[in-house]
Amino acid sequence: MSMPERDFAPGDGPAAKVSVSLRTGNIRAVRERVGARGFSAYVDAAVERQIERDLLEEALQANEAASGPIPQSLRDEAAELFRRVKSAPELQEEDGWRAHEAG
User: Fold this and answer.
1) One pLDDT digit (tens) per residue for the chain, 103 residues
2) Cα–Cα distance between 74 and 17 in angstroms, integer?
3) In 3D, which of 13, 89, 2 has the Cα closest to residue 48?
4) CB atoms within 10 A of CB 95
5) Rounded to whole angstroms, how far apart are CA atoms 62 and 49?
6) Please, are residues 92 and 83 in contact by the beta-carbon 8 Å criterion?
7) pTM for the whole thing?
8) DSSP of 34-55, one letter per residue?
């Protein structure tokens, strides 16, 4: 007997089969990246990242409601940091990011 989905936090719990519809181009692109065996893991990771983004957006909206909008200078600083990290290949891998943070 499987446990209800609500008993597990995002990213936790056993794998379960579900049926989803994806656009053909997305299916092809995923298969080209990970092959047929890695398809489910790739989609699961993408869903988890989207949930994290949704939760972050909700937290930002709650923060703005409580404290007012984030100053533009901080938004600009965050955007620049994101651009630098995104363009630095050594920071795109998990271990590289940790090494950068520790240094």
Assistant:
1) 454 556 888 889 998 999 999 999 999 999 999 998 999 999 999 999 999 999 999 999 999 999 999 899 998 999 999 898 888 876 655 544 444 444 4
2) 43
3) 13
4) 8
5) 20
6) no
7) 0.63
8) HTTTTHHHHHHHHHHHHHHHHH
